[in-house]
């Protein structure tokens, strides 16, 4: 259990504990004895584990399953693009999850391996996918343009890659992303 927890900032799910042989009775025993800290329903943490800025992302991904990926405005914040500070954690999951609460904003969709980066215990969309997601969202054009400008200035993406990505988006999202790229390129030069 410790190996899994170490890879996930000390967190692990009841299902993960069950997979390695801890029955639900054994899980309750360890939580009652203080060997494990119950963080949420079906989520535990090793005691005295140091907190980290990424803890909320680990918890969100563990709560929603192994295919959950931090995305949209939250991914902008992770990649340090724009001055976004989303009130909710944006997470993209494959179809079927409709859970909404005060902490999570869930987006339905698949995120293939090429569109995500694996972090310790959680995943985040790549810069390219993040900008495409934001272009498809209700975020302001100014917000999107600022993020694109910073990504291009930091050389983490190229205009060509963003324009190629735009061709696979809806007309509205493609237009928004193309406008952001054109404006950002003009401002950078």
TrEMBL record:
<feature type="domain" description="AbiEi antitoxin N-terminal">
    <location>
        <begin position="7"/>
        <end position="47"/>
    </location>
</feature>
<protein>
    <recommendedName>
        <fullName>Transcriptional regulator, AbiEi antitoxin, Type IV TA system</fullName>
    </recommendedName>
</protein>
<dbReference type="Pfam" id="PF09407">
    <property type="entry name" value="AbiEi_1"/>
</dbReference>
<dbReference type="InterPro" id="IPR018547">
    <property type="entry name" value="AbiEi_C"/>
</dbReference>
<dbReference type="Pfam" id="PF13338">
    <property type="entry name" value="AbiEi_4"/>
</dbReference>
<feature type="domain" description="AbiEi antitoxin C-terminal">
    <location>
        <begin position="60"/>
        <end position="178"/>
    </location>
</feature>
<dbReference type="InterPro" id="IPR025159">
    <property type="entry name" value="AbiEi_N"/>
</dbReference>
């Amino acid at each position: 259990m410790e190996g899994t927890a170490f890879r996930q900032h000390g967190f692990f799910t009841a299902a993960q504990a069950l997979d390695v042989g801890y029955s639900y009775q054994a899980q309750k025993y360890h939580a009652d004895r203080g060997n494990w800290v119950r963080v949420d329903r079906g989520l535990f943490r090793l005691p005295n584990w140091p907190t980290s800025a990424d803890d909320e992302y680990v918890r969100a991904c563990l709560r929603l399953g192994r295919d959950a990926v931090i995305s949209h405005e939250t991914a902008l914040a992770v990649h340090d693009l724009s001055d976004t500070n989303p009130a909710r954690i944006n997470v993209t999951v494959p179809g079927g999850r409709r859970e909404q609460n005060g902490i999570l904003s869930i987006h339905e969709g698949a995120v293939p391996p090429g569109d995500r980066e694996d972090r310790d215990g959680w995943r985040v969309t790549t810069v390219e996918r993040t900008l495409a997601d934001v272009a498809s969202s209700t975020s302001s054009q100014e917000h999107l343009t600022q993020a694109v400008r910073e990504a291009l200035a930091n050389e983490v993406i190229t205009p060509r890659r963003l324009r190629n990505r735009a061709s696979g988006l809806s007309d509205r999202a493609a237009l928004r992303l193309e406008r952001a790229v054109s404006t950002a390129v003009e401002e950078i030069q």
